[in-house]
Write a structure and sequence with these properties.
- The complex is a heterodimer of chains A (about 160) and B (about 120).
- Chain A is α+β, with helices and mostly antiparallel strands.
- Helices cover about 35% and strands about 35% of the residues of chain A.
- The two termini of chain A are about 25 Å apart.
- By secondary structure, chain B is an alpha/beta fold.
- Chain B has five helices and five strands; from the N terminus they run E-H-E-H-E-H-E-H-E-H.
- Chain B has a five-stranded parallel beta sheet, with helices on both faces.
- Chain B is globular.
- The N and C termini of chain B lie close together (about 10 Å).
- Chains A and B meet through helix 1, helix 2 and helix 3 of A and helix 1 of B.
Chain lengths: ~160, ~120
């Protein structure tokens, strides 16, 4: 049985938010922002940004990128060269803020439909593996892929199976 | 005369972007102090006077909504507080205004939007 995906207008809201955030706050122009199939709930990437949420649904927003791209994102946000981003902590702070903005803008679309959502703080993992709970009946998984110069940023939205009253 | 502006946000990157955005908006008369959450923000408020406070909502230790309330309780007549956050839901905006915030700037933002929302408080 395939896992359900987000309603189309929520995917489109996430696509709009991704483009606006990258253009406005990161000074990056995406070459494409596409909906992709989110086939897994397990991830192993160089940089993984996570932000959990509760409310009408419980779940996690999972944002993945290469370390080089995460450093470029940080550098663009700080108007520096990627080589000037010293420790990974600086890149993680910037990447976490991108995750935070994506989650907040997704929340705005979600609550506009009459739902509730409380966001946790973003957490950025470097060269790690993550498993989120979006397998099984009632789960929802969707992904938006943003292509920019230097790579891609994958933005996944994962709802756990148990729907809350 | 320089205006003292307190920026309360748990992201150092975002604090830098806000400072840069204010300058890009043509507002040159601001002196900035930074705080990483509401607790640090309260320490700054107790230690000095500010003409404007800019605060995130989603922060560890003390979130922005509790910070706004704490500032109002502490100072009685607080300086203008503008929330800068991704959470643009009507519920959050209403709650922030109820607790004493005077304005609201949604992330992502442009220098033009900063000028529109923050500019009037720094004239």
């Amino acid at each position: 049985m395939s896992t359900a995906t987000l309603e189309q207008h929520l995917v489109e809201a996430l696509q709009r938010a991704a483009r606006e955030i990258l253009e406005t706050m990161v000074s990056m122009s995406p070459t494409s922002v596409t909906e992709e199939s989110e086939d897994t709930s397990s991830f192993r990437d160089e940089v993984i940004g996570l932000l959990g949420f509760t409310g009408t649904r419980t779940g996690t927003i999972v944002v993945r990128a290469s370390e080089a791209l995460a450093r470029t994102v940080a550098a663009r946000m700080l108007m520096m060269e990627p080589s000037e981003i010293g420790s990974f902590a600086d890149a993680a702070d910037a990447f976490g803020e991108v995750v935070n903005m994506l989650a907040g803008n997704f929340k705005n679309a979600w609550v506009a439909d009459g739902n509730a959502m409380e966001l946790a703080m973003p957490n950025v993992i470097h060269n790690g593996a993550v498993k989120v709970h979006s397998d099984g009946p009632g789960c929802v998984r969707s992904r938006v892929r943003v292509a920019v110069e230097g790579g891609v940023i994958d933005i996944g939205v994962h709802f756990e199976g148990k729907e809350r009253a | 005369m320089a205006k003292n502006v307190l920026i309360v946000d748990d992201s150092a990157t975002m604090r830098k972007i806000i400072m840069r955005g204010i300058r890009q908006a043509g507002i040159e008369n601001a002196d900035f102090k930074e705080a990483g959450d509401g607790v640090e923000g309260m320490q700054a408020v107790e230690a000095g006077a500010f003409d404007l406070i800019l605060s995130d909502v989603n922060m560890p230790n003390m979130n922005g909504l509790d910070f706004v309330k704490a500032v109002a309780t502490k100072l009685g007549t607080p300086p203008p507080i503008v929330m800068i956050t991704t959470e643009g839901s009507e519920e959050v905006v209403k709650e922030a205004m109820n607790r004493g915030a005077r304005g609201y700037l949604k992330k992502p933002f442009t220098p033009e939007k900063i000028q529109e929302v923050i500019g009037p408080f720094l004239k």
